[in-house]
Amino acid sequence: MANVGVLGAGSWGTALSVLLTDNGHQVTVWSIDENEVKMLREKREHELKLPGVKLPDSMVITGDLEQTITDKDFLVLAVPSPFTRSTAKKMAPYVSDGQIIVDVAKGIEESTLLTLSKQIEQEIPQADVAVLSGPSHAEEVGRKLPTTCVVGAKTRKTAEYLQSMFISPVFRVYTSPDILGIELGGSLKNVIALAAGIADGLGYGDNTKAALITRGIAEIARLGVKMGGKIETFTGLTGIGDLIVTCASVHSRNRKAGYLIGQGMSMQEAMDEVKMVVEGVYSAKAAAKLAEKYGVSMPIVDEVNAVLFDGKSPAEAVNDLMMRESRSENRALEWEE
């Protein structure tokens, strides 16, 4: 049995806390929100973000950051990506040398273009930082529906340790050394999911969705490989797998926000309606900046940014994507004559 601290009591942090408790670990969950702590303690359920999933009696809920971190075998950082750096900064004084922190959020910091693991390493240099990602909606993990994820870590030892902590009959975990590729796939797919939701909101069909998913992973992989990620990662669970589920699922907050935008709402109105952090909105500008920095064409990302921040109509954005210059699907393939 491990002693685990979970930082962040939203839907994903709560679902993973239940999973880890079911696996026989002692889990302490921290939230910065006093009202959330009170609700979780009294109701033993996150009524707002994960209704119907009961919290085990052994799970400790606290607002004490030091208590959550001290003497824990590993930590799970599950705060929304815009708060990763600020939370890591608060955690730093209590994290011991070599203590494992597995980040489970997805995003890229716009001001620095750093992934979340790099932000954590800057703020907590003494930590052993890993990531957990994949096609894994909290609502389904909380209901114990079969799910697969990937743990990325710097060493095989850390990856296999975390694999053994999380794996269960309903939660299969693979390992990978490609932390960068895992994080890029998890972050950029949220931007493509906004586009998929916009298309749904406009009333387009399965053909459109399939095109966005297929061409979307092509954009993600082009950038990811140029940055040093591995192509195998983008064809795997944290690439195409996560992209499919985020573009198609009713649980996807990014798809839902995009749908509302396609229906005519502004970006802010859509975010207010979703009532949770829409990670793709925060990653969209960073994705465009990375594409420019590395000289990679990402037309879907460009059009999403135009809709979100420049007032471009969704219908016009789709038309411009469809009417781009004609080209071969894969320039690496050669004609016989």
Automatic annotation (TrEMBL):
Active-site residues per Swiss-Prot or TrEMBL entry: K189 (proton acceptor)
Stretches assigned to the Glycerol-3-phosphate dehydrogenase NAD-dependent N-terminal domain: 4-158
Subcellular compartments: Cytoplasm
InterPro entries: 6-PGluconate_DH-like_C_sf (IPR008927), 6PGD_dom2 (IPR013328), G3P_DH_NAD-dep (IPR006168), G3P_DH_NAD-dep_C (IPR006109), G3P_DH_NAD-dep_N (IPR011128), NAD(P)-bd_dom_sf (IPR036291)
Binding sites annotated in the UniProt record for NAD(+): G8, A9, G10, S11, W12, G13, F83, A138, R253
Enzyme class: oxidoreductase
Domain Glycerol-3-phosphate dehydrogenase NAD-dependent C-terminal: 178-318
Highest taxon, organism lineage: Bacteria
Pathway assigned to this chain's UniProt record: Membrane lipid metabolism; glycerophospholipid metabolism
Biological process, per Gene Ontology: carbohydrate metabolic process; glycerol-3-phosphate biosynthetic process; glycerol-3-phosphate catabolic process; glycerophospholipid metabolic process; phospholipid biosynthetic process
Keywords for this protein: Cytoplasm, Lipid biosynthesis, Lipid metabolism, NAD, NADP, Nucleotide-binding, Oxidoreductase, Phospholipid biosynthesis, Phospholipid metabolism
GO molecular function: glycerol-3-phosphate dehydrogenase [NAD(P)+] activity; NAD binding
One GO CC term, this protein: cytosol
Secreted among keywords: no
SUPFAM superfamilies: 6-phosphogluconate dehydrogenase C-terminal domain-like, NAD(P)-binding Rossmann-fold domains
E.C. number(s) listed in UniProt: 1.1.1.94
Binding site residues for NADPH: S11, W12, K106, A138, R253, V277, E279
Main location: cytoplasm
Keyword Oxidoreductase on entry: yes
Catalytic activity: sn-glycerol 3-phosphate + NADP(+) = dihydroxyacetone phosphate + NADPH + H(+); sn-glycerol 3-phosphate + NAD(+) = dihydroxyacetone phosphate + NADH + H(+)
Family: Belongs to the NAD-dependent glycerol-3-phosphate dehydrogenase family.
NCBIfam families found in the cross-reference section: PRK00094.1-2, PRK00094.1-3, PRK00094.1-4
PANTHER family according to UniProt: GLYCEROL-3-PHOSPHATE DEHYDROGENASE, GLYCEROL-3-PHOSPHATE DEHYDROGENASE [NAD(+)] 2, CHLOROPLASTIC
Name listed for the protein in its UniProt record: Glycerol-3-phosphate dehydrogenase [NAD(P)+]
Protein's organism: Candidatus Mediterraneibacter quadrami
UniProt lineage: Bacteria, Bacillati, Bacillota, Clostridia, Lachnospirales
